[in-house]
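re: the backbone from monday

yeah here it is again, tokenized this time
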């Protein structure tokens, strides 16, 4: 019998199969991770407007009027940012993320119970973007003004 040097074909095929299995697991997880990172930018845009609304409330002891609109320019992942005085809601619309996320929204709804005291104590984060892409702080729950 000859002294074998190197790998046999079967050993190489096993290595290729293991790499294929690992790739099949890793690629979908990475795809969800990148979508989640992009959705974070949408939430960040809404949060910047949350700060503006809180400053307005602190100064005027009232929610901003209907005519009040945020100073906003589109970003790579945010197509629109809007304020609705009637419901006390900030809406950020996603774009260029993926087909299952584009045109969907993140909403931040103000707790108006203490606005007359110049405070928005908390906001409820929700929206039409699937919860698996939203961070833990935006899983249809209330967050305090400082978060």
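seq for it, each position gets an aa:
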């Amino acid at each position: 019998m000859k002294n074998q040097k190197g790998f046999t074909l079967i050993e190489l095929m096993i290595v290729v199969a293991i790499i294929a299995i690992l790739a099949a697991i890793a690629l979908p997880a990475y795809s969800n991770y990148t979508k989640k990172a992009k959705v974070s930018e949408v939430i960040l845009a809404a949060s910047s407007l949350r700060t503006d609304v809180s400053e307005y409330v602190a100064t005027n002891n009232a929610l901003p009027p209907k005519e009040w609109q945020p100073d906003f320019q589109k970003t790579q992942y945010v197509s629109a940012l809007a304020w609705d005085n009637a419901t006390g809601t900030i809406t950020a619309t996603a774009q260029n993320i993926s087909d299952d996320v584009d045109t969907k929204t993140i909403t931040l709804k103000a707790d108006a119970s203490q606005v007359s005291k110049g405070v928005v104590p908390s906001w409820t984060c929700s929206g039409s973007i699937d919860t698996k892409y939203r961070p833990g702080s935006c899983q249809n729950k209330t967050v305090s003004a400082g978060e």
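The chain has a mean pLDDT of 85. Strands lie at 78-84, 89-94, 105-110, 122-127, 141-144.
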